[in-house]
Write a structure and sequence with these properties.
single chain; 3-stranded antiparallel beta sheet; 6 helices; globular
Length: 191
């Protein structure tokens, strides 16, 4: 919900008694990522190619010749560190665990181009290379209970981005703006 996103932003800005990490996780945002890149020189051309992370999922210390680095983004906003060269394409990977089998919504927020893969299958493409698209995109997938591999292929202009994995119930609530408040939201509404 927009209120939950505002609370995550307020917590990240240092509002007392709020944990950006806890709020991000309650919102279904992925916070722990492994990142590697860049792959290729020209981003628009490189995006259409298949690079080593699409085969290895960034599961090893190196993917191709690129080091894989681990990061935690407490507010869920994945951004590239300053020392990464802004060319080609990048990949970020995470492991997500769903508690129950069923329909799940993969939701991304990004101003740029990216693709999302779950367990090696492309589930969402947001391509802003040739025309602007909405900053939020989503796709519904059927997942079994347990751990799943999430991989995001993105252009430098696609960062920062956020990825949330929501149960179908959470996704319906988020799209209708009628979320049942968590304690932090309830405290905010009482104030």
């Amino acid at each position: 919900s927009y209120l939950r996103a505002a609370l995550v932003a307020a917590a990240a800005d240092g509002l007392p008694n709020l944990s950006p990490l806890d709020l991000a996780l309650q919102s279904g945002l992925v916070t722990d990522w492994r990142i590697a890149g860049p792959y290729g020189r020209y981003r628009n051309l490189a995006f259409d190619q298949v690079w080593p992370p699409e085969r290895d999922g960034l599961s090893k210390p190196f993917s191709g010749e690129k080091a894989v680095e681990s990061f935690r983004f407490e507010d869920g906003n994945v951004s590239l560190p300053e020392y990464f060269v802004r060319k080609g394409v990048f990949y970020s990977a995470a492991e997500v665990t769903v508690p129950a089998s069923g329909q799940w919504r993969v939701r991304v927020e990004s101003a740029g181009t990216l693709e999302v893969f779950l367990d090696g299958e492309r589930v969402l493409t947001k391509d802003d290379r040739f025309r602007a698209t909405p900053e939020t995109a989503s796709s519904t997938v059927r997942l079994s209970a347990g751990a799943h591999r999430l991989l995001v292929k993105f252009l430098p202009s696609g960062a920062p981005f956020r990825v949330a994995l929501l149960s179908e119930k959470q996704a319906i609530v988020a799209s209708h703006g009628q979320a049942t408040p968590v304690e932090a939201e309830a405290a905010y509404l009482r104030a």
